């Protein structure tokens, strides 16, 4: 930039200011500039106006009330580790960067040393890079907030004994002593994050309070435990929020107009965002069906390499708690611009599919469209209309929209039945909260045909996306579910022998083989436990750039396409379709492609993190709900068996608790790993996985979600077993598996 004329006497030029900021050893403020250029008196007003104009023009940015050159990084900055480049070197991006003023954030190669993990935040010293591939090179000064030294717990003030921290982790054996003067102003009963300051000698480890998170008496704060314990980002950085707030309406250019097609959204009644809509018609000549699945076009707003994209990739997915949602994308996108609201125009990526009368997909295509949802329906509303209870929004939709959808669903189910995916019967619990965030009741939602219809339509759209991109040889992220391991199949076979069932180990097992087992146990006392054991046999699904099929769905290729508002994998698939089909300039970037493996690992980890956080929060909420019922007797089922005792799940609430083996009485109990049972060494009394039991609630720890039970019902009769015999039987089963 050429030097400009001084705006007034004693006031530096724009270039003078930029040169000074760039040469200064640290970040400077207005006072530093005024002092450096001897600006005094009335000239300070002119300097202030000049700095304001430079900021508005994007030449300067504010970071923590200090002025910096918006196009350059400071000598020390906080960075987020983004992945590995093609040479295997870790690279990062700055946490604070003004994209509107300076364009995309620069990539920074990290110096050699102990490699940080993707997603880590580090404090680093930054200098210009010598080669041309990166603008900057950084040397890590330290990792920020080492999770090994952070503990979440409840602050308890003990009169005359200082303060203690009761850890929320069930595995924590000891409380922590709060150091004098290091309570951070915490109040009794508050959830806090502390840093362990010293290891214990003879007493308790010491800690200092770093953050106050909320009063544990308020159940709405219970989900905060899981959010902080698992490191789930729950606040959008200012640049991300700002970027979402400045998004412009989508362009209609190049889009097919589907506004006259009566697409409908069918979701849970409490859904806040709606990213999929469906429509279908029957081909009366062939008996087949034509189906349209329209998905919110998130890619038109979330472009590769932007602040919105980086944050979505780090989050990986939305996390759903009973009392809140931690979204992957800001609400401006997820609940407004990309939510397929009723009777409002929205951009979408639509999958058009045709099926023959046997439910086999014969063709498909993808287009970017403009759509307008004809109605926002809940599963219950749609099902009620089909069952003859038409009313409200469904009045007038039954014949033209809903009946064709259900007839098409019948066609698709023929194909599903022929494919024979895994059909597990394991009901899920749902917490119903009142206006105060307290549990009103725990229910097991009824599984409706409306649920199955939407699920099957989404599966077929996901298959079409995977097939289309595979045919184009396009990079993408597959949803992979590998077959069970030989070891797990062997363990299942051993267990099935205990209930007089067999599983042939000499064949290539497919989902239909497991379905035959599940069908054979329907209505029997051990139906539930066999379903549980079949589930435990399965591998965990994950994301990968290489296709390995989806065992559970009995599909050769499968990718997630239908939920880009809440899953980053789907956004990658959308971009791949846009690039592969020439549907715009907002498709996959070179950077997206180069780091697919890193992205797959990151979002697979994020998914597991979300599942654990959601499950733990439900456990804590239910434990809090039952805390006043200590001493009550409940019916339940044994869901797990270990040498130390039994895990029992209650029927009415789905709450999980533990029965210590020492409370069973009747002498020593042997752990029979093959049968998943505790057996009396002398009595033969047996407690086995899946058994129905009655238990008394003895102790509740709401902060950790832990509950302890005593069994009050009688055990099943069995044969005594010695410890040696149990060990020998287990070793023998291991040999047979090998």
Describe the structure concisely:
The chain is an alpha+beta fold and 738 residues long. The protein is built from 18 helices and 33 strands.
- The overall average pLDDT, rounded, is 86
The count of domains is 6
Radius of gyration: 30 Å
Low-confidence stretches: 1-9, 64-70, 732-738
> Could you estimate the helical fraction of the residues in percent?
25-40%
Strand content: 25-35%
Spatial ordering of strands, largest sheet: 3-4-5-7-6
Give me the count of strands. 33
Sheet/helix structural class: alpha+beta
**Overall 3D shape:** globular
Distance between the termini: 73 Å
Q: Tally the helices: what do you get?
A: 18
Q: Biggest β-sheet: count, sense, barrel?
A: 5 strands, mixed, barrel
How would you describe this structure to a colleague?
- There is one protein chain.
- The chain has 738 residues and is α+β, with helices and mostly antiparallel strands.
- The chain has 6 domains: 14-69, Arc Repressor Mutant, subunit A (Orthogonal Bundle), CATH 1.10.10; 76-143, OB fold (Dihydrolipoamide Acetyltransferase, E2P); 147-217, Beta Barrel (OB fold (Dihydrolipoamide Acetyltransferase, E2P)); 238-480 and 544-614, no CATH class; 486-538, no CATH class; 630-737, Beta Barrel (OB fold (Dihydrolipoamide Acetyltransferase, E2P)).
- The protein is built from 18 helices and 33 strands.
- Strands 3-4-5-7-6 form a 5-stranded mixed barrel. A 5-stranded mixed β-barrel has the order 8-9-10-12-11. A 5-stranded mixed β-sheet has the order 13-20-19-16-15.
- Helix 5 (222-229) packs antiparallel against helix 17, helix 12 runs antiparallel to helix 14 and helix 12 (486-497) packs across helix 18 (723-737).
- The chain is globular and about 95 Å long.
- 39% of the residues are buried.
- Residues 1-9, 64-70 and 732-738 have low confidence and may be disordered.
